[in-house]
Amino acid sequence: MERFMRIHTSLGHSLEVTPDHPMVRASGIMAKASDLKVGDTLLEETGQTITIENIQESIRETVAWNVLPQDETRAGNVLVAEGLLTGSARFQNQWANETYRLLLRENY
Known about the structure:
Number of domains: 1
Strand order of the largest sheet: 2-1-6-5
Shape: globular
């Protein structure tokens, strides 16, 4: 069983991800999908700020697939999914501890 979150935005985007999937906040900082809430803002592929209007959670028996680009630069691992900027498997796995540590440092 796998937990999923479907994020709906003010511009009609709808993206389903796992709770640990990295999303790009409007500030440009990565955040786990599970840390997002209604009213938070994300970045669209054009750079436009988009507000989260709804988040639906579900649990299903399925496999979640992640993309791992050959490019190992941070910029090369920011992807577009359903019009929203998101992170690759590298952000979720390899760089997760550093990314979220830096996020906490900037918030305090």
